[in-house]
């Protein structure tokens, strides 16, 4: 077990250090917080779908949206539902995108319940950096499984979170449990 600064990892650091056991996570190389609001390689949520499921930590792909593990999870199984299209605001989504983001969110809840039996969920979108969005330019819906006691002293006191399993393992378990014909 060791610690590493969130600054050394890809994605959007949130100020927490994490304890990794026992191996370094499978992570998405070369990506960081986008430097501008343009789509493309500078945006992780545009880049992830171009990677393999394993490299991108993709759990499921729909027609206009996909499901990916959060690289900076609050809890094991913290998923993000993203439209493929680089849009920032919920009001910019097309009707098919709204419908599929909703359907994938519901399926994500069912799959996470089946795999890890959380006691509750937080669902939601942070719209704008002022509202807490790490990557504000590309909309993403959080699906956060919650367990009693998961917000206890560790993140508050140690500014660290111990994740009980590797992200790659979590992705594989969730992808295996994902239904082949999601409910619409
Ligand atoms: Zn994007």
Automatic annotation (TrEMBL):
Gene3D superfamilies: HIT-like. Keywords: Hydrolase, Nucleotide-binding. Substrate binds at residues 70, 142. A motif (Histidine triad motif) lies at residues 138-142. Residues 44-153 form the HIT domain. The active site is at 140 (tele-amp-histidine intermediate). It comes from the Bacteria. Pfam families: HIT (PF01230). The keyword Hydrolase applies. One of its GO terms (molecular function) is hydrolase activity. This is Hydrolase.
């Amino acid at each position: 077990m060791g610690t590493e600064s969130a600054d050394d990892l890809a994605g959007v650091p949130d100020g927490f250090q994490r304890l990794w056991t026992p191996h370094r996570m499978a992570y998405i190389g070369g990506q960081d917080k986008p430097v501008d609001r343009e789509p493309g390689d500078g945006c992780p949520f545009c880049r992830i779908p171009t990677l393999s499921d394993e490299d991108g930590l993709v759990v499921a792909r729909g027609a206009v949206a996909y499901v990916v593990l959060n690289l900076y999870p609050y809890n094991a199984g913290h998923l993000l539902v993203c439209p493929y299209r680089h849009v920032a605001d919920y009001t910019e989504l097309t009707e098919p995108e709204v419908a599929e983001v909703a359907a994938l969110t519901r399926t994500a809840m069912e799959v996470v319940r089946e795999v890890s039996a959380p006691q509750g969920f937080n669902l939601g979108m942070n719209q704008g950096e002022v509202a807490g969005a790490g990557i504000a330019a590309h909309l993403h819906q959080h699906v956060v499984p919650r367990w009693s006691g998961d917000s206890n002293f560790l993140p508050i006191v140690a500014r660290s979170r111990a994740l009980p399993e590797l992200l790659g393992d979590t992705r594989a378990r969730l992808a295996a449990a994902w239904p082949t014909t999601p409910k619409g």
